[in-house]
Amino acid sequence: MLSSSVFRNTISSISIISTSSSSNSTKIKPNSLKSNSINFRATSKPPNSTKVDETEIPRVLLNSVRVLEWDKLCDAVSSFAATSLGRQASKEQLWVFDQTYEESLRQLRETNAAVEIHKYSSAVMDFASIDALLVRSAIDHTRRSSSVSGQEAIAVAVLLQFAETLQLNIKSAIKENADLHDRFMPLVEPILSWVISKPLVRSILRLVSEDGSIKDSASGKLQQARGRVLSLESKLYQLINTLISNEEDNTTSLEASNVGGRWCIRSRAGQVTNFKGLLLSSGAGIGNVMEPVSAVQLNDDLLEAKASVADAEAEVLLDITEKIKLDLEDIENLLKNIVELDVINARAVYGLSLGGTFPNLLKLDDKNAALSSEGFSTKDSSSKILYSPKKRWKLYLPKAYHPLLLQRHRHTLRDAKKEVANAKAELRRRRLYGDNFSQQGTTQIDIKKLQEKVTQVENSPPIPSDFQIADNTRVLLITGPNTGGKTICLKAVGLAAMMAKAARSLCFMLRTSTHPVV
Questions:
Q1: Does a cis peptide bond (omega within 30 degrees of 0) precede residue 186?
Q2: Which of 314, 335, 368 is the last residue of a domain?
Q3: What is the C-alpha separation between 3 and 469, in angstroms, rounded?
Q4: Domain range for residue 267?
Q5: What per-residue confidence (pLDDT) applies to 363?
Q6: CB within 8 A of 405, min separation 6: which ones?
Q7: CA-to-CA distance for 410 and 45, rounded, in angstroms?
Q8: In sequence order, which residues have a C-beta less than 8 Å from that of residue 165 and are 6 or more positions away?
Q9: Per residue in 193-230, pLDDT tens?
Q10: pLDDT digits over 503-513, tens only?
Q11: Which residues 6+ apart lie within 8 Å of 41 measured at CB?
Q12: pTM for the full model?
């Protein structure tokens, strides 16, 4: 009997049936997944077999996922996460293989909700502005009663602003169309339940600039200290320039230098100067560094003023830290939810990018029962042969693509088109500036070759396979010549099962005409 250990409770068979088929179903539209569904059937009863030695499971499992190149698919999916913590969490989640049926079903619903939000507006789920690592660092510093930095404070404010904007967009969408509430489930309720401190956002933005620097207006003490620093630096600048200009013929060999925050004059080794000063350093090749006596007090005052600035900035940051501490639990929960949402969004965007089809997970009590197409309607007359109610399947995958091959083909096509665009831009540049075309460079012939390469790639897409294994099949024998696609077909089935479990959109496309049963 065909068997696959996909959930903790072994799946005795996997059955897949598409619920709709149309002549336009193979066309992938932007921001849309296939409306048809792929159905996986699982039973929760464990098979009557001896208990497997748990010490052997990791090795067998790792060997299996290595053959399937699961790590490459994990990298592909996690690359769609916008935050660093989201990418890390996405990979960690994909490498968890002991999910229950209920857990996979929950993740599938979350992915579907994210797709629905993308259909409404793809900009709503853009997490690129969030620096999750800085927010995490701000939380850690606050928990240890250590002051946050200006950049960490801004990262917290950006997180809260994003959450507020997302809430407003979701509320606005539901207000326009009440049906969206159900379509956005189960993500809508957690999003609308976020606690966001608007006063904290206003306070941070009032005190800290976008680059993380403390504003002059943050406190009177800070403004006064910075004003004194500017005044002293101006006096030192004038003094140093005056001393250098007074050195008759030696001005070309003298230059202002800052050593440890003190303004000095650098000269050649052994050079005699007219001003009195303190020798701070000297040596062959580096010359002499002298602090003019007349600049000593100003330098002392400057260092003192800068220390006052640092103290004033520390007071502002400490005040921000105390305000963050008041909402620390809400901020920590919000960061956790945002990272989880980023992971869910990565799954959704990955499926959208490949035009995938959602799997439909069905759990049956009888592990020996096969799933038939009865109960699934279709309007396409040609589908009556494919999905006959009299036919019962162990496995049904219409036009299944190997996801890594499909992704590789799209990347190759994208790169080929980019080469054409770059070549055309180079040709326009050469014409504009009148470059000599006899020299080695881009020509119309080169562009034509690149365009032919694009056409060649477009005409060589990955070939999908149809998997239809009837209920009464006990043994499946796959034969064929070398490089005939046997291994790719088996890998496609294995990845399909794992992707369905991980709530990933499967790379299936409905066929528009009948095909022989494989």
A1: yes
A2: 314
A3: 12
A4: 220-314
A5: 58
A6: 462, 488
A7: 41
A8: none
A9: 999 999 999 999 999 999 999 999 999 999 999 999 99
A10: 666 665 533 33
A11: 11, 13, 14, 15, 362, 363, 364, 370, 371
A12: 0.75
